[in-house]
Amino acid sequence: MYIGKKIIALAHPNIALVKYWGKRQKRGNLPAVGSISITLDTLYSRTKLVLDPSLSGDVFYLNGVPGLENQQIRVQVFLDLFRQRSGRWVYARVDSENNFPTAAGLASSASGFAALAVAANRAFQLKLSPRELSVIARQGSGSAARSIFGGFVEMHAGKNPDGSDAFAEPLLPPEDWPLQVAICITSTSVKAMGSTEGMERSANSSPFYNAWVQASVKDLNEMRQAILIRDFEKLAEISEHSCLKMHGLALSARPGILYWNGTTVELIHHIRRLRRQGIPVFFTIDAGPQVKAICLPEAREQVRQELESFPGVMQLLVTGLGKAARIVEGQS
Ligand code: DP6
User: Fold this and answer.
1) Which of 54, 59, 62, 113 could form an S-S bond across to 144 if both were Cys, CB 3.0 to 4.6 Å?
2) Domain range list for the chain
3) Is the CB of 286 within 6 Å of ligand 1?
4) What pTM, to 2 d.p., does this model score?
């Protein structure tokens, strides 16, 4: 165990093409459906961790300020997993920084927990494999399991109550199909309802929930195939279907959950119009009002131009596909 040594890990957020929405078991945070995502480049969480035997609890800072109480608890419960495995009950100082807006539907919990898992693995010298780390990262946040890997990634729902088969694995490295992602920020306020609560309400009250879970297997099979043969049209079609279906599920909960604003809807129309005109681009949207436009590399500048001047788009972040979560300081 590295006492007092500074370990820094970096992980990128990811965007799901086949969405995760719903849990089969709350304990262990086990997903009801598998999911497929792309890990982004340029955007990241950078997490510094130092084990300090003088602490009587973990100390967590997010973007330079002490984390909120619920965040402190989430970090502590997460690091307990590493303490349990190592048998060493030492607490940590954790400083995490995101270079992108937090809580704006950009999955900062995914990159945050992936970076924390990688840093803690090193600090406690557990030598866990990336797959094992994805199982642990999942317990921080379901989507965090996918940020352990780069490029195209699949998360398995699994069946075991202990969650050992609910892991993520890479499908294709980023350089093998270097798609581009333009993130349209349409609001900077904190989202109305977090994913955890949104999916719980959907599962408990939507009449469509069972159909959603059943249909996910077909979406995953088709998406895996589209990625392996680099079929962009198919990728676009399944992604938009999975996204709209997930939002349809949220809308059909009681009370219904609507994550979009007016600009979100206008962007959906605009991106579909662009695709009809022959520009290889499609949209996806997570538990917030931001729209992510995904395109082939050759369409990047055209998509950027179309979206950055679009009414209601406050900021546009354009990025490619990124690598796996990794240690950047404190290597050996
Ligand atoms: C809409 O991973 O944030 O982004 O497991 O409860 O922490 P918890 O949920 P989280 O949910 C992500 C939901 C989504 C779709 C996706 O990323 O697959």
Assistant:
1) 113
2) 7-174+322-329, 180-319
3) yes
4) 0.97
